[in-house]
Amino acid sequence: MNSLIEVKKLRKSFGKLDVLHEIDLAVEKGEVIAIIGPSGSGKSTFLRCLNGLETPTAGSIKIGTHTLKFNGKKPKDKEIRSLRSQTSMVFQSFNLFPHLTALQNVMEGLVTVQGMSKEAASIQVKGLLEKVGLSQKKDAFPIQLSGGQQQRVAIARALAMNPSVLLLDEPTSALDPELVGGVLAIIRELTKDKTQTMMIVTHEMNFARDVADRVIFMDDGKIIETGTPDEVFGHPTHARTKQFLDQLYVGIEKNLGWGL
Length: 260
Ligand SMILES: Nc1ncnc2c1ncn2[C@@H]1O[C@H](COP(=O)(O)OP(=O)(O)OP(=O)(O)O)[C@@H](O)[C@H]1O
What we know:
By secondary structure, the chain is an alpha/beta fold. It has two domains: 1-86 and 175-260, Rossmann fold (3-Layer(aba) Sandwich), CATH 3.40.50.300; 93-162, no CATH class. It has helices at residues 43-50, 77-84, 102-112, 118-131, 147-160, 177-192, 205-211, 229-234, 239-253; strands spanning 5-14, 17-27, 32-36, 58-63, 66-70, 87-90, 165-169, 197-201, 214-219, 222-227.
């Protein structure tokens, strides 16, 4: 079958540090994938490779009809742009432009990357601010918004580009605990119509269990186990997955707040 995303033998090293080891993965259109795993296992690096923020050392990435092969050399700007045009990323730390309002932040890519007029862009994105519950805040600057509201603007901004795949890198990790639920609720809503392909790196296990079609457990730069949420959380087959989940459960028993 022709999958929307096909990653083959993807490797990434930073100098002598091998961070991703031959990752193979196919993702179907409309699939919601949650990527879990210990700190430093390469989850963010993997997402960053998918949208061209990091250049893989070897392997290939196909998204839609574009395939990029990596051989240690810097890819052409045109090739990177082709990856970027199909992916939008939501970062842990929002990364909004401080001098632009919420509405202007959401419009920015349409105007500067896609060359749309400001009038047309503002009409197109108004519905998106509504979707993330922020139409009342369209003229607010990031500093006037809570972290949760800023992240919701960042989600609207990512959606504005109409990406083939939405990449979310620990979207609630930088938020105060009371703001996490609101942002997760927005993402949960987005997963409901099963049209937007999404890959979400998260430490929120309950959330992953709820929204994902498939959970991927990464450790040490490899995909160790993949399956439905019930399979991975309920009946993990690999010892490392079990150990990781057991550690989380011990964390909860000690009330360390792992978001389960
Ligand atoms: N730009 C970089 N230069 C050098 N090493 C890096 C760079 N980015 C990441 N690394 C290293 O790559 C490894 C994987 O990091 P990565 O952030 O992908 O892990 P992660 O699973 O997302 O971790 P976390 O859950 O803590 O965010 C780590 O050892 C990290 O220090």
